[in-house]
Amino acid sequence: MVCIGRGRDPIVVLLLIHFTPVFFERAIHAAAANLSLDYVLRGVVREVRRLAADPPAGVKLLLRDNDLTDVVALIDGPADTPYAGGVFRVRLALGREFPASPPRAYFLTKIFHPNVSAAGEVCVNTLKRDWRPELGLGHALLAVRCLLIAPNADSALNAEAAALLRDRYDDYFARAKLYTDIHARPDHAHSAHAHKQEYRDVEENVEEGGEAGGESAESGEGAPRPKRERRAAGARDTRRILKRL
């Protein structure tokens, strides 16, 4: 196990998921700062591990590589909807009161939908008044995907989309499909993930167990260490800590 100090009282965190050393160290420190109780953090780690091994239908779990409380998923657009054929990046942000309070959901992929604001904020009852602590992250992601199947014009964050859904469905369908074709192409979703390097596939971190890092240029004397070297040093430090515990 790893002990992370918070003030005078250490928080004991069990190693419930086999991330790479650098990934684990960053993720646990960031999550400990965002979640208020150690048992909550353990529960998040368990669920992330379970979702990585057995994700819900149409969902591929991603994770911000330095924070367990900032979860991202790729959601496939459901068949027979204007979102079919698209792949949408969705973010779940876990606050300090999680799971007593629901995660906040955002679309990172631009989408035309009555219940998604221009900034990507999602309005769905499951993540509002109908939330229960036992529902968990998997249920939250499924609720967002179901919203693509059954949009609700009565709790709209996009008034134009809601009006078209109610009064001119064919126009709503055409506009939403156009957004999907432009912004949610599968190559867009995956290339944004790969090029920005903001998120890593959880399965890669669980299965590979290697150190990540891009090519580093030679640096002169006194220059900052390349990213690969810094990560390798961090991994060695983490291994030394783990051996003492």
Structure characterization notes:
The longest helix has 18 residues, at 227-244. Residues 1-25, 193-203, 205-223 and 238-245 have low confidence and may be disordered. The strands form two sheets. The chain has a five-stranded antiparallel β-sheet with strand order 6-5-4-3-7, with helices on both faces. The protein is 42% helix and 15% strand. The protein is built from eight helices and seven strands; from the N terminus they run E-E-H-H-E-E-E-E-H-H-H-H-E-H-H. It is an alpha+beta fold. It has one domain: Ubiquitin Conjugating Enzyme. Residues 214-223 have a biased composition (Low complexity).
Mean pLDDT comes to 74
Helix content, binned percent:
40-55%
Order of helices and strands: EEHHEEEEHHHHEHH
Strand order of the largest sheet: 6-5-4-3-7
CATH class: Alpha Beta
Q: Flag low-confidence runs.
A: 1-25, 193-203, 205-223, 238-245
Structural shape = globular
Q: What percent of residues are in strands? A: 15-25%
Q: CATH superfamily name?
A: Ubiquitin Conjugating Enzyme
CATH architecture title: Roll
Annotation field: number of helices: 8
Radius of gyration: 20 Å
Count of domain modules: 1
Tally of extended strands? 7
Q: Write down the oligomeric state.
A: single chain
Describe the biggest sheet? 5 strands, antiparallel
Going by helix content, strand content and strand pairing, the class is: alpha+beta
How far apart the termini lie comes to 7 Å
Q: Can you tell me the CATH topology? A: Ubiquitin Conjugating Enzyme
